[in-house]
Amino acid sequence: MSSAASPEFPITDAVREALAVSLRGTQELLPEEAWVRKLARSAATGQPLRIKLGLDPTAPDIHLGHTVVLNKMRQLQDLGHQVIFLIGDFTSLIGDPSGRNSTRPPLTPEQIKANAETYYKQASLVLDPSKTEIRYNSEWSIGLGSMGLIQLSAKTTVARMLERDDFTKRYAAQTPISLHEFLYPLMQGYDSVALKSDLELGGTDQKFNLLMGRQLQQEYGQEPQCILTMPLLEGLDGVEKMSKSKNNYIGITEPANSMYAKVLSISDELMWRWYELLSFESLAAIEKLKAEVAAGRNPKEAKVALATEITARFHGAAAAAAAQEDFERRARGGIPDEMPELSLSGAPMGIGALLKAAGLVPSNGEGLRKVEQGGVRIDGVVISDKGLKVEPGTYVLQVGKRQFARVSLKA
Q: Position of motif 'HIGH' region (predicted)?
């Protein structure tokens, strides 16, 4: 590795440690040798490196899958480097076509503004706000004007754009590609020029756009940034990437009890993947824990530790402890302290209809199936009569281990 740095910037143990932190859980770090040189220069001169992450505020909420990249930003931030959280308020007006087989409708300025405010507030649960530089790419993008945009477009070719996988597939399939979509990677790349970025992070689906930043920085006479891509986190099912549309996600602002219980629901195999990408424990500590489980320690203990760490990160240690207590109470058949409360009318009401009205099952038929399977309780008592008519009163309804509702039923 010593040949990777200039003689005046030696590879110290601190540089090696910084490289190890950079590589943890990473899909690709390109080019690694250049990143080592940057780390060595920073260590020798005391000048922090500029680490850029751009996010288009396309949705108002962040889930754990989004935090994989944010966690890496925080690790680099803790090493003393300058983190730049770039909100793509201008690029959102174009619409990122990455990984898509059709044009994505752009957002309105009002949607972008509302989403951006929520995005940064939620991202601050991972990043250190006092050490984070917040920028909006409209700062320099609007000022480019039509002449600047034409000059920027001259920095690359259509052939280069068609190297991008999704553009290639759409072109081959004769699926329309709008000219404005070519502007997206150009504008994202120009962000790196404007910010003089040393490293840009993104998901694996952003690799082309990140490399465009390197190309444009060279065109503008800057030292090109390195790029670091992070893998996409598998969701609760352990198969598909975490996604709201697939309902296999954990939102970072959802209640502590729900967050804790969902982490505990993942498979033992997926747990280690989540440890690598979501935990702030050292790799040595994780390997030690994995060895203990392999030697016979109950894997649930490791999962409890992960659930506690993640819940405490977003809700605090006290809430994480309370969530653990709540989960254990439910596992013993107990009733949680907090649950949805609602008032309904129509008593006496059939048990299937009541469960549906309480939002615990999607249909009367599903409610009756749950009764048949012994998965329904009223005030802690298992219900076995599918013909039950529930009289007026206030009840705690339970379906399975984790679904509860307190219902006041009136005639």
A: 57-66
